Amino acid sequence: MQCWAGGYVVHDCPEGTIWNGKKGDIHGTCDWKYNVENCKDCLCYDQAQPTTTSPPTTTSWTGPATTREPFKRRGHAHCPDIKNQANLKGTKFDLDNCTPASDPLNKPKSAIESWFTEKIFNDLFFKSNLGVGPHRCLPYSYEAFVIAARYFPKFGNEYIGATSSSGFTEDQINKRDVAGFFAHKVQETGENNSWLFIEPGGAEEGDDGLDCYMKGALWTWFEGGPHTNRFHCGDNPECGNICPQQIYCDPNLHYYDLHCSDRTKGEYNGKTVNGEVCYAGRGAVQLSWNYNYGTFARWLHTIGITDDNGGIIDLLNHPNLIMTKMDPPLSILASLWFYMNPGAGVPAMHDVLIGNWHGYSGGGRQWEGSVFGPTSKIINNECGGEKFGSWWATGGPENNRIKGNSYFALTAF
Fold it and tell me: Fewer CB atoms inside 10 A, N or C side of the chain?
């Protein structure tokens, strides 16, 4: 039973997991049996007890002690072939002679680099960049990810104690934090190919279909995908230099001095294109609205990331630098900035995932602990919940996010 907003829903945990929660606990979750078998107050304590018959397995786990069932990585060979959607209109980028991701401040390595390897990233996001795959010169790459993480050393590396963290261990909280970040990429930038579940001859049903579906995260660069009507085009990182019309512009300067651009021309493929500057979704989190672009630019300046003259990078007049700037690469850094920082009246999504927050629902009841649901409200004001009985995307945007979180937290690493 999962409680939410004064009511509850009943659903089965995915195969191999069991409910980890106490009576009246609104923060329970599906978890490995190992983490429930010693919790006498947990609702599923009896069902979690070891049996005399070991579950079937292909290999025995002989590694170091762990509180999590070790995941046997499968790669992505079982997924259908992907179609490269980049450069659909004939504009080519040269990946042999290009500017790779780099860090001008040479930040030290972050803690998650000790376990989240390039191999894991490349497996999880093999469809990224419109099917090209991870590449150091494109918006989504392992290099761009680790550079972003180095600017936020608490990402995947902050534990405030078992009580505030709903009983999760430090290792679990750190991985839940990373999983929560990636979960939103399924909805924001995912291929979202539901045919993987229903197309004859497609991916295998069940877990295989889910695996191939979730590995479609970080597929697109712009809001609307490669065929977007928000921008001049959607199949090249430079497409966002100009838009048909200005959208996602809030001119309320009495709240913040972050104007909207009046630029009416942009460069694409060596030509000048007429249009307007817009603040529609770009990058891993699909950063939107002029105030987010402007605030992110100011934050960059405070940490020493500036333009060539030492000033604030002009993301208000040139928001597509989110996609094209590579020193440091901003496509994932902007997303992690949004994830790690609180907004107007809302906590940081990172703090919600690690349990460092206190919220309130109707009737003055307090919400706290390591949970995922409120992050959907923070990122896009979504409260639709999860559609149960199916593991594929038929239940709306928040359904995608919640299922993505379950996938990454329990399966991906």
Answer: N
Q: Is the domain of 274 the same as that of 381?
A: yes
**% of the chain residues with pLDDT over 70:** 67
Does pTM top 0.70 for this prediction? yes
Assigned domain for 372 exists: yes
123-158: pLDDT as tens digits:
999 999 998 899 999 999 999 999 999 999 999 999
Can you give the three-state secondary structure of the chain, one letter per residue? CEEECCEEECCCCCCCEEEECECCCCCCEEEEHHHCCCCCCECCCHHHCCCCCCCCCCCCCCCCCCCCCCCCCCCCCCCCCCCCCCCCCCCCCCCCCCCCCCCCCCCCCCHHHHCCCHHHHHHHCCCCCCCCCCCCCCCCCHHHHHHHHHCCCCCCCCCCCCCCCCCCCHHHHHHHHHHHHHHHHHHHHCCCCCHHHHCCCCCCCCHHHHHHHHCCCCCCCECCHHHCCCCCCCCCHHHHHCECCCCCCCCCCCCCCCCCCCCCEEEECCEEEECECCCCCECCCCECCHHHHHHHHHHHHHCCCCCCCCCCCCCCCCCCHHHHCECCEHHHHHHHHHHHCCECCECCHHHHHHCCCEEECHHHCEEECCCCHHHHHHHHCCCCCCCCCCCCCCCCHHHHHHHHHHHHHHHHC
Specify the higher pLDDT residue, 229 or 364.
229
Q: Last residue of some domain: 21, 38, 70?
A: 70
Structural domain including 270 reads 76-413
